[in-house]
Write a structure and sequence with these properties.
The complex is a heterotrimer of chains A (573), B (394) and C (142). With 573 residues, chain A is α/β, with parallel strands linked by helices. Chain A has 4 domains: 129 residues, 3-Layer(aba) Sandwich (Rossmann fold), CATH 3.40.50; 192 residues, FAD/NAD(P)-binding domain (3-Layer(bba) Sandwich), CATH 3.50.50; 117 residues, FAD/NAD(P)-binding domain; 57 residues, Alpha-Beta Plaits (2-Layer Sandwich), CATH 3.30.70. Chain A is 30% helix and 26% strand. Chain A has a 5-stranded parallel sheet with strand order 10-7-6-14-25, covered by helices on one side. In chain A, strand 1, helix 1 and strand 2 form a beta-alpha-beta unit. The relative contact order of chain A is 0.11. About 1% of the residues of chain A have low confidence. Helix content of chain B is 39%, strand content 8%. By secondary structure, chain B is an alpha/beta fold. Chain B contains 16 helices and 9 strands. In chain B, strands 1-3-2-4-5 form a 5-stranded parallel sheet. A 4-stranded parallel sheet of chain B has the order 7-6-8-9, sandwiched between helices. Chain B folds into 3 domains: 86 residues, no CATH class; 139 residues, 3-Layer(aba) Sandwich (Rossmann fold), CATH 3.40.50.1860; 131 residues, Rossmann fold (3-Layer(aba) Sandwich), CATH 3.40.50. In chain C, strand 3, helix 3 and strand 4 form a beta-alpha-beta unit. In chain C, helix 1 packs across helix 4. The longest helix of chain C is centred in the middle third of the chain and has 18 residues. Chain C is globular. Classes of the chains: A alpha/beta (573), B alpha/beta (394), C alpha/beta (142). Chains in contact: A-B, A-C. The complex binds flavin-adenine dinucleotide, iron/sulfur cluster (SF4) (4 copies) and FE2/S2 (inorganic) cluster (FES).
Chain lengths: 573, 394, 142
């Protein structure tokens, strides 16, 4: 081990790290660590030049291990593994010290941040010395994609995959495609008839030879990993009567990637009882108005309302109902619907009650301007309650610009209800190992750099299941998800993680504790040899087995007890 | 007064100035009280003259604003804190000062002699002294103890509790004001003292459950006392529970059309909406009709937040009057309440409106007494003539 | 920070999928917290061997933090439950041996809870500061 030759690279990350950590001192310190033969600091280690530096040193200085003290390994570990691979080293001979997220960005005391960074680098070098090369496995990628959810996001993603020449399986829970968009009339900011656009998209998807559409279907389990997912789909029979076994139609799809496009649920305004929804027929939601507009029947029995009120932010930006976020579309939906009603009822008084108006996006502010110009009044008053007033209802609130309590009698109230995560998000997240952000929507791998990826390699997010979006953003997101999902398919094979459990047969007592502990059935007792063996294809690398093994025969490669304990020692030295 | 400390303590920076607090505030419709704009004032100005805002005494602590705020700002608690500033400076309405002094000296805001606290028992059976140990502690409360109109309620409840076979006791003349209104009038120091003294007294009884007459006592004891394992109940909850477990059953028909007014301190403060209705619905022959504004939208009767002792800046227009009109519009002949303050304010309003022949205000407990044919209805202690001013004895 | 004040060292074993990522988020959000914590990244809290924790304490760490995904969210289904079980057992043993088991904290912090991570470190640093140095450290030093 004393023979190991570690090269340490301290990254400035421009000034991101250098401003708060003394990188030169850190490199100097690293040179003194046992096993280290050189240490350098460099402005951007992830740049081509930075990576070339590593490659040159590996060949010229005969390095056999590399430590990069830089950003989070969750960001650039793959980059540096590639770099050493190109230099002829085993990619598992790299260790990173996270001195950006864990030092420079969170401790403004430069001396203490630097001191902590030295410990993290010492820990990384101590571990690097003990690293062992692992044999990389290539897994062939199944050339298909399962798309869960057939709304506008699922449709766009499916079409993109199909047009790239791969099989796409579109699994939709309901009996038809299009999701919420099926219920809409016209879209902002162009006031196009949405159904025309949707019909065209649906027919292109349906007609594509690479597409299989599974209606009335849901995914019941997902196994495997990127490149090789096994997806069970259950389909309810088309015309099953009561009492018929609904589970009989199930099938197994084997694909390389999965795209989740399960959309949103509209907020149920009954959870704001002060608004009287469900109690007064004249209080409806934007979705209901949308359906009425599409049907060409306002449901007013011909008695045109004289006064119409739109209430914004119902169930959004509201911690009382657990939805702290802005639903992003309702301001524009209201502007659109108010404009449509303006056209249909030139004599009515149409007022939008708001507390903030958020009309971002191309053409949106201009649309809002035009809506006001056409005589829709915006009043800064967030309505606090709705009560009955003979055969009308009265809005009760405060006009915050006048600082005056108001009570306004109206004939029709439209609640701009927001979006919520789908009701079955919890079960989907368990099935696909997806994380959810505090708002309940699925969490992307990185808020800026990886907006469609998830923590599970090979699973991508499209549309409103990741957070509220309008149609344009949904389609952009879906196409991005499809492109990312195509990457492994286009490559044809993916690197399977080699950091699996391994058994030292000389120590194994054949007790079977690891077999019990493993959630994936990877270890098994070999009846002939009397020892446990691990099926590397099944092992996911969680490391639970190693903890329970009384003989310490089974260990998780790349996270062995020796390696971890060496890190502890180095951190506490 | 510097605004910064309260801005931080009450997390006012969370306010988005939407106005749903003031919009929902029943007082904002009749007085200068505007908590939203007050918050804004405090956010933008480093100094504030709290005494220039006498309308702060208008707030009934109905908690509509708290219930409506989408950002969890808790505006009513800011009002209480601002009242605290005034209490600290000593410049407060005389009637408020007198009520606080009454609590300090005699353990009740009316300042009536402590020795008379058991007067409500009247000629009924003397309840057991909780100090000797009991399972259920009945906390009677100040107004029901002393006010002749309200005394029917504890008298009824005491009989119901024994009829249902509970092991209950009261603290007798040792019972003290719970401090609910004291806290809301901004006297945090006195409230803390009461919490300590009463808490000790209550724990020493060893009771596992505590039941209150008043939603105000309930709110304080349940949410602001740390009574540990003692389960705190409002009497409507206890009755609903006794009914559900068959320990109580009504046999006498009460053929009345009843509408129920949700007290703020039971509803908006504690989300107790269904139990009182369950009790009413269990009474044979009784028909329950709802007002348009019910549950979360119930209109405040203007009895809370110390308002029994502070008449506010607009005593002419009364919310109770509006409420009584709403009740009458349902066609009900009884307006049922479950709070002593509501009983007083709404009964007054019925008289002022001249609706006595049409609408009677009754406590749920009084209807229960009717349904059980108990001899403790309004006949005993016929309502006394009372003034409506702040010096009212209760 | 005044020099006379005791400055604890905390070793944190964090699962890659949740708490480690949460710590990264604290970083990208520039949420400041005390530099007393030193992190070791593991794939899952279920792979934290109690001997790692003991070793850290014997080496003189004043506190050990084990961070994993919220119940039900473990990337490997149940690693966090396994961790909880193991650490509870370890704490019971330590407690029986008269050792202050409150130097070991297990916390579920998700990838989106950067603030919660920072708060946890802040609280734990203060709690360990209040406790004073790990007695095992002194024994080792003599
Ligand atoms: C009232 C209203 C008006 C709007 N107007 C406009 C507008 O004018 N312009 C605009 O740009 N945007 C508008 N929007 C927004 C638009 O509706 C969304 O952008 C769009 O619906 C998002 O599409 P999606 O595919 O992500 O989700 P969804 O439309 O919700 O589709 C999700 C699909 O997935 C299916 N699904 C869910 N769970 C599962 C599961 N477990 N298994 C299988 N299938 C599943 C659902 O059945 C559904 O078909 C409006 C929204 C509302 C509420
Ligand atoms: S988009 Fe507009 S209406 Fe919808 S939540 Fe956001 S601010 Fe409120
Ligand atoms: S590391 Fe985890 S998945 Fe692999 S064999 Fe061990 S317990 Fe099973
Ligand atoms: S508690 Fe009631 S009266 Fe007081 S400010 Fe809030 S809404 Fe108004
Ligand atoms: S309701 Fe809440 S957020 Fe809105 S103005 Fe009032 S205090 Fe501010
Ligand atoms: S992966 Fe986070 S606890 Fe298991």
């Amino acid at each position: 081990m004393s023979l190991s030759r570690v090269g340490v690279y301290v990254c400035h990350c421009g000034t991101n790290i250098a401003a708060n950590v003394d990188v030169a001192r850190l490199a100097e310190f690293a040179r003194s660590l046992p096993g280290a033969v050189l240490a350098r600091d460099y402005p951007y280690m992830c740049s081509d030049r930075g990576q070339a530096l590593i490659r040159e040193d590996v060949s010229e200085q005969a390095l056999d291990r590399v430590v990069v003290a830089a950003c989070s390994p969750r960001m650039h570990e793959p980059t540096f593994r590639d770099a050493v691979r190109q230099a002829g080293l085993n990619p598992y001979m790299v260790e990173m010290a996270n001195i950006r997220e864990q030092c420079a960005w969170v401790h403004d005391d430069r001396a203490r941040a630097t001191e902590k960074a030295t410990r993290l680098v010492a820990s990384a070098v101590a571990r690097a010395v003990l690293l062992e090369p692992l044999e990389e496995r290539q897994v062939d990628v199944e050339p298909g994609v399962v798309v869960i959810g057939g709304g506008i996001a699922g449709l766009a993603a499916t079409l993109t995959v199909a047009e790239a020449g791969y099989s796409a399986y579109l699994v939709e829970r309901s009996g038809s495609l299009g999701g919420r968009v099926r219920e809409l009339d016209r879209t902002y900011p162009t006031l196009d008839k949405v159904q025309v656009v949707l019909r065209e998209l649906v027919s292109r998807v349906a007609a594509h030879p690479n597409v299989t559409i599974l209606l009335r279907s849901s995914v019941t389990s997902v196994d495997g990993c990127v490149g090789d997912f096994t997806v069970e789909v259950k389909t309810r029979g088309a015309n099953l009567g009561e009492g018929v076994d609904a589970s009989r139609d199930s099938q197994t799809l084997v694909v390389g990637s999965v795209i989740v496009a399960t959309g949103f649920d509209p907020f149920d305004p009954r959870r704001k009882p002060e608004l009287g929804y469900g109690q007064y027929p004249s209080v409806i939601t934007t979705l209901e108005l949308e359906q009425r507009l599409a049907a060409g029947d306002l449901g007013d029995n011909g008695a045109a309302p004289r006064r119409v009120a739109f209430l914004q932010c119902v169930g959004s930006r509201d911690v009382q109902v657990g939805n702290p976020y802005c639903s992003r579309v309702c301001c524009m939906v209201v502007a659109k619907q108010a404009r449509q009603l303006r056209g249909l009822m030139p004599d009515a008084e149409i007022t939008v009650y708001y507390s903030d108006v958020r009309t971002f996006g191309k053409g949106a502010e201009e649309f809002y301007d035009e809506t006001r110009a056409q005589g829709v009044l915006y009043r800064r008053a967030s309505v606090s309650e709705i009560v009955r007033s003979q055969n009308r209802v009265r809005l009760v609130g405060e006009d915050t610009l006048l600082s005056r309590a108001i009570g306004v009698e109206v004939d029709l109230v439209v609640l701009a209800t927001g979006m919520e995560a789908g009701a079955d998000s919890a079960s989907l997240s368990a099935m696909l190992r997806l994380q959810r952000s505090p708002d309940g929507f699925f969490l992307e791998a990185h808020p800026k750099l990886r907006p469609v990826d998830t923590a599970t390699a090979g699973v991508y997010l499209a549309g409103c299941c990741q957070g509220p979006k309008g149609i344009a953003d949904t389609i952009a997101h879906a196409k991005a998800a499809a492109s990312s999902a195509l990457i492994p398919l286009l490559r044809g094979s993916v690197q399977a993680d080699a950091a699996t459990a391994i058994v030292n047969p000389a120590l194994c007592a054949n007790c079977g504790l690891c077999v019990e502990e493993c959630p994936y059935g990877a270890p098994a007792l070999d009846p002939f040899r009397g020892v446990a063996t691990v099926n590397a294809l099944l092992c996911q690398g969680c490391g639970a087995c190693a903890v329970v093994c009384p003989a310490k025969a089974i260990s998780l490669q790349h996270a062995t007890a020796c390696q971890v304990l060496a890190q502890v020692d180095a951190l506490m030295a | 007064m510097r605004t910064q400390p309260l801005v931080e303590q009450m997390e006012l920076m969370g306010c988005i100035q939407c106005g749903r607090c003031t919009g929902g505030c029943p007082l904002a419709r009749k007085t200068a009280l505007n908590i939203r704009s007050l918050i804004y004032d405090m956010l933008v100005a480093p100094e504030m003259d709290v005494h220039a805002h006498q309308e702060l005494w208008d707030c009934t602590c109905c908690f509509t604003c708290v219930e409506r705020c989408p950002k969890d700002v808790r505006p009513a608690e800011l009002i209480i804190a601002l009242r605290g500033e005034m209490v600290e400076s000593g410049r407060i309405p005389e009637t408020v000062g007198a009520a606080l002094m009454g609590v300090f000296r005699q353990g009740n805001p009316s300042g009536i002699a402590r020795e008379d606290r058991s007067a409500w028992v009247g000629d009924g059976p003397q309840p057991k002294a909780a100090q000797e140990g009991c399972e259920l502690l009945y906390f009677v409360g100040c107004s029901p103890s002393y006010d002749p109109r309200l005394q029917t309620v504890p008298r009824t409840l005491a009989r119901v509790f024994s009829q249902a076979g509970t092991d209950f006791g009261t603290l007798g003349t040792e019972e003290n004001c719970c401090g609910s209104e004291v806290q809301r009038m901004g006297e945090a120091g006195l409230f803390e003292m009461l919490v300590e003294e009463n808490g000790e007294l209550i724990r020493r009884t060893g009771a596992s459950r505590l039941v209150t007459t008043s939603p105000h006592c309930y709110t304080a004891l349940k949410n602001e006392y740390a009574l540990g394992k003692v389960e705190v109940l409002h009497y409507t909850q206890l009755l609903a529970d006794l009914l559900a477990h068959g320990q109580l059953a009504f046999d006498r028909e009460v053929p009345r059309i009843v509408t129920y007014h949700d007290p703020c301190f039971l509803g908006k403060h504690n989300q107790i909406y269904e139990e009182p209705r369950a009790v009413l619905n269990a009474i044979p022959g009784l028909q329950l009709v709802e007002m348009d504004r019910n549950r979360e939208r119930s209109l405040c009767c203007e009895g809370g937040g110390g308002r029994m002792w502070a008449e506010g800046t607009n005593p002419e227009e009364r919310l109770s009057a509006q409420r009584v009109e709403e009740a009458a519009a349902t066609g009900a002949d009884v307006l049922a309440v479950a709070c002593p303050f509501c009983l007083l304010t709404l009964e007054d309003a019925v008289k002022v409106a001249g609706l006595e022949d049409q609408l009677r205000v009754m406590d749920v407990a009084e209807l229960v007494a009717d349904a059980l044919d108990l001899p403790v209805t309004n006949q005993i202690g016929a309502p006394l003539a009372r003034s409506t001013g702040p010096e009212r004895e209760c | 920070m005044s020099e006379c004040q005791f400055d604890p060292t905390i070793i944190a074993f964090l699962c890659n999928w949740c708490t480690y990522t949460g710590a990264d988020l604290a970083g990208t959000s520039r949420i400041q917290y005390p530099p007393n914590v030193r992190i070791i990244r593991l794939m899952c809290s279920g792979s934290v061997d109690p001997t790692y924790v003991l070793k850290a304490l014997l080496d003189g760490a004043d506190g050990v933090l084990i961070g994993g995904c919220h119940p039900g969210d473990c990337h490997y289904e149940s690693g966090n439950y396994k961790a909880r079980r193991r650490i509870i057992a370890l704490k019971e043993i330590l407690q029986a041996a008269g050792y202050d088991e409150d130097r070991i904290w297990v916390r579920w912090i998700s990838a989106s809870e950067g603030q919660r991570f920072a708060d946890t470190v802040t609280q734990m640093t203060q709690a360990m500061r209040d406790k004073g140095p790990n007695p095992l450290r002194r024994e080792w030093e003599v």
